Amino acid sequence: MFEDKFRVGVTRDFLKPDGSSDLDDIAGPLFAKSGLEWEYIDHNSPDLNAKQVTNYDALLVLGSRITKNTFSGNDRLTIIARFGVGYDKVDVQACTDSGVILTIAPDGVRRPVATSILTFVLSLSHQLRIKDQLIRSGRWEDTKDYMGMGLVGRTLGLIGMGNIGKETFELAKPFGMNHITYDPFISAADAAEVDAEIVDLETLMKTADFVCVCCPLNEHTLGLVDAKYIGMMKPTAYLINTARGPIVNQEALTDALQNGRIQGAGLDVFENEPIDDDDPLLSLDNVILTPHSICWTDECFEGNGKSACESIIAVASGKLPNYIVNRDVLDNSLFEKKLAKYK
């Protein structure tokens, strides 16, 4: 039995400018019920260093980077629970080498991100941005020049059909669209469950009326949607990215939008975040932009928070949590020793 208090460090980027946090109402009761101590880590820094995390058994992380230096001289830290599904800011190998388990919260983002993708689909197809501008500028009659696109019979193409992608197709079924996906890791049976057809990336880019990026950012997807593939899109098509900015070549996409080679785009993520004040995307009428937060709803926050906290609570009880990223760590004797002390 672990005799000392199990301590959880929470990154300070959860805090609002006034020092409050919506996380308190989620983490507080869950951790208190399980007898865990928790607090916000000193200093809000982009990279977590070893000094900041030395006294914690677990970390609940929002946007801070986890590097090899985070673990320097630390033999206590056992789990890092990511608040969300992306872990491109986490050195996964360093976690494994240090005997630290990394978890994500796919159950928290599945529905919120899927509805976010469809929010872009509906907003773009109905010319929502420009119609909002028309009425604000007194151009009521000009609406005849901005006919939208009906969805029945159109093609929804997803690059990546994992947790979020499958949910997107499920929610889109009533719209009467054709479903296609490019994903080297799914089976025909997986696709059939959501009435989707597996195609190669070239076919998807040439065929889809809505190209939606739903895959994680890694060495295989970095720059995947480049100028060549963007050039294959239909002039009436839209590109939607709610995954990670660097998956899409932003310069090539901007050029296509500026020159009308595609109809428009919905972007929640960018190559550099926050987006530069002089970025040409900001001046375009055929793109809807959101600050990496389109799915930031009470539903998403609660789901992510509950999932991440439950992963930490499992480890504090000497159990393996759900949604482990680095399963190789389970064979690491250092991790086995750490976990054993909580049983």
What's the CATH H-level homologous superfamily of the largest domain?
NAD(P)-binding Rossmann-like Domain
Structurally, the number of domains stands at 2
CA-based shape = elongated
Structural class: alpha/beta
Indicate the radius of gyration in whole angstroms: 22 Å
How would you characterize the largest beta sheet?
Answer: 7 strands, parallel
Helical percent range? 25-40%
- Mean pLDDT across residues: 96
* CATH topology descriptor of the largest domain: Rossmann fold
| Oligomeric state, counting identical vs distinct chains | single chain
Tally of DSSP helical segments: 12
* Residue runs with pLDDT of under 50 for 5 or more positions: none
Could you tell me the number of beta strands?
Answer: 14
Structure explained in plain terms:
- The protein is of the alpha/beta class.
- The protein has 2 domains: 7-104 and 298-340, Rossmann fold (3-Layer(aba) Sandwich), CATH 3.40.50; 108-289, NAD(P)-binding Rossmann-like Domain (Rossmann fold, 3-Layer(aba) Sandwich).
- It is built from 12 helices and 14 strands.
- It has helices spanning 24-33, 50-53, 92-97, 106-125, 128-136, 163-172, 188-192, 201-207, 227-230, 250-258, 298-316, 333-340, and strands at residues 7-10, 37-40, 47-48, 58-61, 65-66, 79-82, 101-103, 155-159, 178-182, 196-198, 210-213, 238-241, 264-267, 287-289.
- Helix 1 (24-33) links the parallel strand 1 (7-10) and strand 2 (37-40).
- Helix 4 packs across helix 6 and helix 4 runs antiparallel to helix 11.
Task: Please write out the topology.
Layout: E1 7-10, H1 24-33, E2 37-40, E3 47-48, H2 50-53, E4 58-61, E5 65-66, E6 79-82, H3 92-97, E7 101-103, H4 106-125, H5 128-136, E8 155-159, H6 163-172, E9 178-182, H7 188-192, E10 196-198, H8 201-207, E11 210-213, H9 227-230, E12 238-241, H10 250-258, E13 264-267, E14 287-289, H11 298-316, H12 333-340
Parallel strand pairs: 1-2, 1-4, 3-5, 4-6, 6-7, 8-9, 8-11, 9-10, 11-12, 12-13, 13-14
